[in-house]
């Protein structure tokens, strides 16, 4: 078992450490489409003082990756602790309990272990992937909360240059003039704060999941956040052109942006664009402004944790479902295996472990106004190991003293409770993570790698390349990220029997992260020509981790 160090116990706090460890509540914050564009991840433009403050008291993973860079598959993967090949959800059209296996979810596990579990905003992807119920009653003690103003997200509420209202991509708004005079994430924050007060009153252990919708498009956010990002300060992506050696199967044509009225008016050519430079800056500006907006809401939520007297016994985990391309490689949105689409922020605040246990009533997370202050306190611990969101389930179990779910056999469709990830607690720095790992917990001797995948309907970018339905998938791109490189190989895939044909290669990508951090210089042909050992791109070994059959 992992041992809690004595470090950080507040004066006079004499409780046996492991008792504390055991009873921790969990506040699980998931932000939609947020890449690590945060001060605490070294971004010098983005203002995220409240998330940075959380980071300063947390263990902050520098290299955390989603298993598939699109909402529903990523969420079902990390919430069940299984890879997409085991949930068999690569699109938005099935419910794992009916389609793959009756898997116990992360919140369900906490519920079954005596926690009140609650979902606010977007945790499961709503609709078919969670059976139109957010997997209630299995995962949650009470029905999930969805903000009522979410229904206006795609309606004509954005003021255009012509003074009329449009369904635009870029949509800074006067909140008072919005339908219901609010926005979804504001409502979710209010509901989460109300639930924190309620659980405090009834004295129950809780697992509260809060899912923010921004910076997911459309960028509908309070217009005052634009002031933090003057357009003249916004740069383009360092590599705004589609790389010449990018296999066409790897490219995603970002259809969801093209369909917005303001983007459609640009008459962009399909599939490669490009987006005019002034509009690229506007997209980046609104993405960053949306992050600062979410940051203030996270600040209010954490401040409410203080006010409810819960910061000393609540674990806070902060992450995102996947990243987002901001013009890198001429791409936008998620829908790819690139670093910008798969890498996510991931941090764990564990009282008594990553920060001293505060006295009840002490302010741990005072609200920081991004307009007046932009503290850039660095993260508390910064493990560099490659870790995966599929490992959240065993990690949170270990951190709260619950039994770690067993490792899944392959295949594991018939097993309700197991995990395809590995607890990340072994990578917590020893100053916060247990006296020099003395305890029985040993670091795995192998260097961890992160594994992501993305499906395509064919080799040439088409209208459905971003998000093909299961029956249209013909190619699956499997990607390994090691500390040194990313290798992605696109194999033939049969959606009728979920088999991968490893002899049918539709494209390969190899990027060395040190010399090519933006992943623009594809060296895969050097593998084919034998300049590098084929072991470098030996995805097949990694495929054996998942539940897909190999031909
Ligand atoms: C699936 O799991 C749930 C929760 O563990 C259980 O209530 C239900 O009966 C199971 N369904 C089937 C078909 O086994
Ligand atoms: C999914 O929802 C339907 C309709 O409400 C219900 O009949 C079915 O039992 C649900 N599936 C599971 C596995 O609970
Ligand atoms: C914009 O850039 C200028 C010049 O680098 C800098 O002085 C200013 O602080 C920046 N403004 C903001 C809001 O970041
Ligand atoms: C886009 O095409 C329409 C119709 O052909 C034209 O009226 C409009 O001026 C074009 N817009 C741009 C930005 O080129």
UniProtKB/TrEMBL annotation:
Keyword Glycoprotein listed: yes
Oligomer status and interactors: Monomer. The 58-kDa mature form is composed of two chains resulting from proteolitic processing, the 42-kDa chain and the 14-kDa chain that remain stably associated and form the 58-kDa intermediate form which is enzymatically active.
Any Pfam family hit: Sulfatase
Protein family (similarity comment): Belongs to the sulfatase family.
Species for this entry: Python bivittatus
Catalytic activity: Hydrolysis of the 2-sulfate groups of the L-iduronate 2-sulfate units of dermatan sulfate, heparan sulfate and heparin
Region (Disordered): 428-453
Gene3D superfamilies: Alkaline Phosphatase, subunit A
GO biological processes: carbohydrate derivative catabolic process
EC number, UniProt record: 3.1.6.13
Sorted UniProt keywords: Calcium, Disulfide bond, Glycoprotein, Hydrolase, Lysosome, Metal-binding, Signal, Zymogen
Regions of compositional bias (Polar residues) in chain numbering: 428-437
Subcellular location: Lysosome
Protein purpose: Lysosomal enzyme involved in the degradation pathway of dermatan sulfate and heparan sulfate.
SUPFAM superfamilies from the UniProt entry: Alkaline phosphatase-like
One annotated Gene Ontology cellular component of this protein: lysosomal lumen
UniProt keyword Secreted present: no
Parts forming coiled coils: none
Name the record gives this protein: Iduronate 2-sulfatase
Cofactor field: Ca(2+)
Domain Sulfatase N-terminal: 25-401
């Amino acid at each position: 078992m992992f041992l809690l160090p004595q470090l950080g116990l507040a004066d006079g706090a004499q409780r046996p450490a492991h008792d504390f460890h055991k009873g921790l509540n969990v506040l699980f914050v998931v932000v939609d489409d947020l890449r690590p564009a945060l001060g605490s991840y070294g971004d010098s433009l983005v203002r995220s003082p409240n998330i940075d403050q959380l980071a300063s008291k947390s263990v902050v993973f520098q290299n955390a990756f989603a298993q598939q860079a699109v909402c529903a598959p990523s969420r079902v993967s990390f919430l069940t602790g299984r890879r997409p090949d085991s949930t068999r959800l690569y699109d938005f059209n099935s419910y794992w309990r009916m389609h793959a296996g009756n898997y116990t979810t992360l919140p369900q596990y906490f519920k079954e272990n005596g926690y009140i579990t609650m979902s606010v905003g977007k945790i499961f992807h709503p609709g078919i992937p969670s059976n139109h119920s957010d997997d209630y009653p299995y995962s949650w003690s009470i029905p999930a909360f969805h903000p009522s103003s979410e229904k206006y997200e795609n309606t004509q509420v954005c003021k255009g240059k012509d003074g009329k209202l449009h369904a635009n991509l870029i949509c800074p708004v006067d909140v008072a003039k919005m339908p219901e005079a609010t926005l979804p994430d504001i409502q979710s924050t209010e509901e989460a704060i109300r639930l924190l007060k309620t659980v405090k009153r009834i004295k129950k252990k809780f697992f509260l999941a809060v899912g923010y919708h921004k910076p997911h498009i459309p960028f509908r956010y309070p217009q005052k956040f634009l002031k933090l990002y003057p357009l003249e300060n916004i740069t383009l992506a360092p590599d705004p052109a589609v790389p010449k050696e990018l296999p066409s199967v790897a490219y995603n044509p970002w259809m969801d942006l093209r369909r917005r009225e303001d983007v459609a008016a640009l008459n962009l050519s399909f599939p490669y664009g490009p987006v005019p430079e002034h509009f690229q800056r506007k997209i980046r500006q609104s993405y960053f402004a949306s992050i600062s907006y979410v940051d203030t809401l996270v600040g209010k939520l954490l401040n409410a944790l203080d006010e409810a007297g819960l910061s000393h016994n609540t674990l806070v985990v902060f992450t995102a479902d996947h990243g987002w391309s901001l013009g890198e490689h001429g791409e936008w949105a998620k829908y790819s295996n690139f670093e910008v689409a798969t890498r996510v922020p991931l941090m764990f605040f564990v009282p008594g472990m990553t920060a001293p246990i505060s006295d009840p009533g002490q302010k741990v997370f005072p609200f920081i106004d991004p307009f007046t202050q932009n503290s850039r306190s660095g993260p508390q611990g910064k493990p560099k190991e490659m870790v995966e969101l599929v490992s959240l389930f065993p990690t949170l179990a270990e951190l709260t003293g619950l039994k770690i779910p067993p490792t899944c056999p392959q295949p594991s469709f018939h097993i309700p409770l197991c995990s395809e990830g590995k607890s990340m607690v072994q990578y917590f720095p020893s100053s916060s993570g247990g006296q020099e790992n003395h305890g029985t917990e040993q670091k795995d001797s192998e260097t961890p790698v992160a594994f992501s995948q993305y499906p395509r309907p064919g080799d040439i970018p088409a209208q459905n390349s971003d998000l093909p339905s299961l029956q249209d998938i013909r190619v699956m791109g499997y990607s390994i990220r090691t500390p040194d490189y990313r290798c992605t190989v696109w194999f033939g895939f049969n959606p009728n029997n979920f088999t991968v044909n490893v002899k049918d290669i539709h494209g390969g990508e190899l990027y060395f992260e040190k010399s090519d951090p933006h992943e623009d210089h594809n060296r895969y042909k050097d593998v084919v020509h034998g300049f590098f050992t084929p072991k470098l791109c030996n995805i097949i070994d990694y495929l054996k981790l998942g539940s897909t059959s190999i031909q």
